[in-house]
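Hello again, I could really use a second opinion on something today. I've been staring at a protein lately and its backbone has me curious. Please have a think about how the structure follows from the sequence. I owe you a coffee for this, so here goes:
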Amino acid sequence: MKPGMILVGMADLNVTKAPGALTTLGLGSCIGIAIFDPISKVAGLAHIMLPDSRAISNNSNVAKFADTATAKLVFDMVKMGADRKRLKAKIAGGAQMFAFSSTNDNMQIGRRNAEASRAVLKLLNIPIIAEDVGENYGRTVELYADDGRYLIKTIGHGQRVI
């Protein structure tokens, strides 16, 4: 990990200001929700595991769910100086890591996480300007607060900036 890089764990979130950067490792079916303000250079990253906090009885960790993590991320970013009206988002992850013979929607957690992330960002009027979701491989991501670069690293599928 690069010096000054803040690690965001699974079911975790954090915010930083330029020249800071955030990273989360091993996004499989999870989603890395990256939000940034290009003017104040405040950035936030959440590593969400599940789509909806209302579907789980033990939901005390707000960072675990797309709905609650995104709201908390925006709150923390505004507290750090971001302007809600300027926020932009990028999402990555949501892979289908294992093949299932069942067509049960509950087994499609990656797809459901991606859909929930898109829905909550739309509800909060935060445009998604780029995404790298789906497929069947994991991702590690880095979000740079200075310019909103979202570096996607994979094993066997290269890396790219979105």
